[in-house]
Amino acid sequence: MDKKNYIGEIPLFKGLTEKQLEKLSDIGLNCAFKKSDTVFSDGEDADGFHVLQSGRVKIFKLSYEGREQILHIINAGEPFGEAPVFAGEKFPAYAEALEDSGTIFFPRAPFIELINNDPLIAMNMLAILSQRLKRFTQLVENLSLKEVPQRLAAYLLYSGEVEEGHDNFELNIAKGQLASILGTIPETLSRILSKMVNQDLIRVQGRTIKLINKKGLEELSSGERVLA
Amino acid sequence: MDKKNYIGEIPLFKGLTEKQLEKLSDIGLNCAFKKSDTVFSDGEDADGFHVLQSGRVKIFKLSYEGREQILHIINAGEPFGEAPVFAGEKFPAYAEALEDSGTIFFPRAPFIELINNDPLIAMNMLAILSQRLKRFTQLVENLSLKEVPQRLAAYLLYSGEVEEGHDNFELNIAKGQLASILGTIPETLSRILSKMVNQDLIRVQGRTIKLINKKGLEELSSGERVLA
DNA sequence: CGGGTACTTGACAATGGTCAAGTGTGGTGG
DNA sequence: CCACCACACTTGACCATTGTCAAGTACCCG
Q: In what order do the strands lie in the sheet with B168-170?
């Protein structure tokens, strides 16, 4: 079984001893989800958390009318649903597989016991939660203080840095999902992309985006410039 | 010196031994801020975090145009600016004293050392960060998926529960600051309060709010009902 | 009592969401 | 291999929510 080896690769569990990995491997349970399966629901009792092994998962909230706001896209190696392990005890949002996905589920009680004996896991977990907080701070800033074109510009610049091919990259999600990340709807996103194309800021072909005028995008994202 | 005794009262440091409190007391530095003093600024290097001893502090972001979104109001006993201790190393927002305030500042390095030797502090810190994440989740949900009347209704119901006098309480902040918590501006807040008064949902007198129709407010906050 | 700040109210504008219709496009089955 | 269906996306017309600007009122502190 290579579960243990895999666990050793997870950033959250970097630097642990063989013995600790052994224990983690003992308490971790493999789970499989098909595309668009629900992993957990908002308000559901949480008796542990997942680490994504393969595939992708979106964490999101739903409005009364059914609109969706994506809080986070989880990629392989990242934990999710970990906050209720330490406080609240209920999942604070929905989680759904964007593709067929595999996770390792760590039940709460044995995991907490493990942490109590090892500050390193705790420190790693603190780092991850802190990172999440920082991202949420940005998300709140974007939603409350920036308009959709600014948010989109920032997203494109950020993606352009992360993906290969600094100014010519492929969206790794559907445009509708991107809208949901940016806190808007597909129609609005579509219109703004058109405007950006008209102003020669970007070029769009399906899911491929080419950044033509990075300077302009940066001005947009900071708010110096507006997308008339 | 009663610093040590005070530290023992802080929720974050509950359950520690005398010796640990001693150490914390050794590394903690007293700070004083006058009303509207800046405690730290967005992007500033963080070499530690504060615990608020007295007064109140707001944590907030600013837009390009200068609009303010409050992320959190810190009350006595709560830590703030703790995330960059574990990740990022820069404060992710502004902090400003709402009143004359006193804090204890814990420098990063000795604090981390302390944590490495004591899982209990780590667990408490994990609980606090998790709690923050949950609150941020709600904040994102409110900003992105709810309209201002819904947010206000939820806020009033929540405050009504927390404060004494379940349905007749005093706002502990200026209305302009409340607007900034709700992600809007004073003018909009003012109008919505008027509408709520007209519909006999609440009564307002200066900073005193009386909840007349809790059921109606609940329907509003959930989205079943709209504020025509 | 005076002055500044907080708050309110009105008229207006614009961002962005809703509804509706149309245009691909990819995947499946005949 | 092609046809078709479903679904993602686009585009247009409309309108609600909410932010901006401006003016006026109330209130608190000195």
A: B168-170, B208-211, B202-205
Which bases in strand D are touched by protein, i.e. have an atom under 7 Å from a CB?
8-13, 17-22, 27-28
**Is the pTM value of this prediction over 0.90?**
yes
Q: Shortest CA distance to A111 belongs to which of A6, A1, A16, A39?
A: A16
Q: With respect to CATH, is domain B146-222 assigned 3.40.640.10? A: no
A89-138 residue pLDDT tens = 899 999 999 999 999 999 999 999 999 988 899 999 999 999 999 999 99
Inter-chain CB proximity A61 and B117 less than 8 Å: no
Q: Is the CB of B69 under 7 A from strand D?
A: no
B:168-207 Cβ neighbours of strand C under 7 Å:
174-177, 186-187, 189-191, 193-194, 204, 207
Q: Where do runs of H (alpha helix) occur along A10-64? A: 18-27
Looking at 2.60.120.10, 2.70.40.10, 3.40.630.30, 3.20.20.70, the CATH number of the domain B3-144 comes to 2.60.120.10
How far is it, in rounded angstroms, from Cα A16 to Cα A14? 6
